[in-house]
Design a protein that fits this description.
single chain; 499 residues; alpha+beta; five-stranded antiparallel β-sheet; 18 helices; 13% strand; elongated
Amino acid sequence: MFIKWLAKHMHSNQQQQETITSVLNTFQKSSDFSVYEHQNTAVPYKLMFFSTLVDPDRLHKDVLPYISKYITEGLEVLKDKIPIEQIAITSDPRDIKHKVLRGYILLQLLADKEKCMLIEASVNLERDVGVPEIEFTVTGPQESFIESLDTNINLIRKRLPLPNLQIKELEVGKITKSKVAILFIEGIADQENVKTMIQRIEDIEFDQILDSSMLNQMVSDSSLSIFPQFVNTERPDRVAGALTEGKVVILSAGSPESFFGPTTLIEFFSSLEDYYLPWHIASFVRILRFFSVAFSVLAAPIYVAVLTFHYELIPKDLLATIISSRSNIPFPPIIEALFLEFTIELLREAGARLPTKVGQTIGIVGGIVIGQASVEAGLTSNILLIIVALSALASFTTPVYQMGNTIRIIRFPYMVAAALFGGVGIVICLLFTIAHLIRLTSLGRPYLEPVYPLRIKDWKDAFFRLPFPFFSSRPVLMRPRDSKRFNFSRAKKTKDIDE
């Protein structure tokens, strides 16, 4: 405790000893820091700024003409004359350092170097709002977040023009000083969730925060778990839907993604398109996703377990086909399965890292060539090749990319357990997975809700999606302060035009 106090005390003393002159001397060591000294005017002054951070048009149009005209009347008068809103007069070295590194122009009078004016003139280099690439949908809005925090908040506020939409901004990262925005709807979101999220972000001790994905890992309930505990999304409409349910949303400057919580395991398998399609189709597609995930995880392990220990379970009509496909293969089923799985992962990783057109070609040609060659060479059976290919295809049905990565990884322990203990090994892995999921939480809320604990009210949007008239109340998991979306009894009395 004494060592921590001493370090903190020394750090505070160091900050107090920092002066404006020392800050400017540090800045001048950089080649892109510009200093312009004007001594031929009635009031000599200096202009200092980072040329790579300042917009030259704003400097020459909105700053320099007004400085030359009103500098003789003092900084207070000049502050009111310059047509820029964000202007501050300060003598705090830390404030000067912070704002100059954010694109502010520093105006210092040579007669009074202890007081400076900071004029916001940062250049905005950002891309336009584009189409979602990771969470693409056929129907629905076609907008995605970009790296600008203000633009991302604008996209959300356009969808939720509410005075109760609150935004709390924090700075995280000892070096990067990244701006982080915490969004929630006051009157709907549970204040305990909001306070927990704010506290976790404030407690972060790290030098750099480059993306919201790093924040996601740092504020998760269990950083050792392979399962994501917050949903990452690049879609403003999904964020708007999460806010109206009472969730807490996190945005980070420089990141084209956000994340929100608390969330459940089932939510990772629901897509926004489920709400844009009729409920019959949406329910069918969602059930198909759950089946695809189960197939992706268990298909190859069951194949390995049956051929290694439980070959008596193979139907007679299929036995001859399996024998003929494996007659020339010198490896046991586990080696054969791992070879194909690693090949699929290599192709997927290579396709993701290469340029788009080349990556697609590598994925298609490589999969066909390697698969056909491995079967003809007697390294793998054609039946297992079909199973592994279908498992890889099924893993892509997961709407959230982070959960898709989890599904890819957990297949390997299942295959190893199947090779060592057969069906018993698969059951043991399932029990460990279920036990881990039961213990897992998201912002302190149960991860397996509404299955465990059992909450019938939330089943309306779990494994299937019921029609919208059943969505009269918000999810129980959120513990919203306002649980009602609309008055169900009053809506039920309202007749359609054709009734």
